[in-house]
Amino acid sequence: MGLFADLRDSISAVTAKLFAGESEDPKRIGIYGPPNAGKTTLANRIARDWTGDAVGPESHIPHETRRARRKENVEIERDGHTVSIDIVDTPGVTTKVDYEEFLDHDMEKDEAVRRSREATEGVAEAMHWLREDVDGVIYVLDSTTDPFTQVNTMLIGIIESRDLPVLILANKTDLEDSNVQRIRNAFPQHETIELSALEGENMDEVYDRIAEKFG
Amino acid sequence: MPHQCTNCGHTFADGSKEMLSGCPECGGNKFQFHPGEIPDDAPDDGTEEPPERPDTGVPSAVGKAAATVRDFVRDDSAPTPPPDDAPPSDEATPRDDATTQGGDAPETGGASSTGSRASDDADGHDSADETAADADADVEDTAQASARSEMVTDDDLPERPPSEGRVVKEPDADADEPDMAALREELNEQFESIKVLAPGQYELNLMELYDREEYIIALQENGRYVIEVPETFAGSDRREE
């Protein structure tokens, strides 16, 4: 009988360890932002740099990412220690989705409508994730566009209201009309890091900040 | 003497009719009321009340009518005179009618029905009248008392209907605004998290999507959603089953 008691104790000890371990699981970092800000490019850059795999296909067509895609256990090494995060690439958040914008990209109407519907579902999913499943946010903005938009203001507001740690990335610095200062001015309360996810520019600083913020 | 011309200082007995046609001395029509004896020198303070009385003439008329009514009551005379005297007051102004009737009707009723009631009333008024010893002062006091009651009832009578009217109206007006606000809130609440404008065209209410517990996982073109019901809901459903 003592054997059973020991066995039970050891099982409960293991279970306790498991649950304790769960709280130290990698933090789930959501990559959020408007469509075509370069979220998937960044997610792929991070995933390739640290795991060798990609997260998903990148595209110039908006709403290429219509389902949140997760890359788990991305271990980022900084200054000798490792920060483990789950990266969630989310569909671009917007308040309007119209299939007609896809028609310009050589798409049949049926396909455009389907894509539009999926994108809408993706936004709903992204918003739902933001509510429940995200421990921190990397907010990606296209530095060639005006950051003062309803979507950006609303999302940053939600993130702030949840007290989530957030990094703002001013992406596409490789483009001529990139204006990082405009983004810094828009969200002075948050740290803004410039980068080109496509070219891999300034990624070292991005990883430093990720490790600091979410480690 | 309670009344004094503010211009020349001429004094009048309380309730004096002389004042009604202006000061006989100087023709002034502003008078100052002094409750007690006043010196011959006329201090020019407290000019608020005198202007009203002679200017309007109505309160004095009311006071007169009320005083005469009161006198009849006081004398325990036949019940007929008060109604006879009331009409003159009616003639004066409709306002007077309401006030004199409102203020004195119970008393006249008491006088006509039983002497004891009348005496009770008289006692009550005597106590009020004690401040002035003269018969003139007595009359004046009743005038004052009725003037006071007149002011109250006057305020009440004209104000109440309008105020009630306002009360009726204002809630409507107020109710309209809250209703609109409530309606807006309701509409906002009801505003779908995803509005299907046309197949492939959607408007998204991000805050609503963020706030709602259930999770929309699929859209259908008939405007329906496939949603994932939170576990808590499912749990309660099971309990219900």
From TrEMBL, chain A:
One of its GO terms (cellular component) is cytoplasm. One of its GO terms (biological process) is tRNA methylation. It comes from Halarchaeum rubridurum. CDD domains: Era_like (cd00880). This is GTP-binding protein. GO terms for molecular function: GTP binding. The lineage of its organism: Archaea, Methanobacteriati, Methanobacteriota, Stenosarchaea group, Halobacteria. Residues 28-172 form the G domain. It comes from the Archaea. Gene3D superfamilies: P-loop containing nucleotide triphosphate hydrolases. InterPro entries: GTP-bd, P-loop_NTPase, Small_GTP-bd.
From TrEMBL, chain B:
Pfam families: OapC. Residues 108-117 have a biased composition (Low complexity). Residues 38-49, 129-141 have a biased composition (Acidic residues). Residues 25-175 are annotated as: Disordered. Residues 118-128, 158-172 have a biased composition (Basic and acidic residues). InterPro entries: OapC-like. It comes from the Archaea. This is Putative nucleic acid-binding Zn-ribbon protein. It comes from Halarchaeum rubridurum.
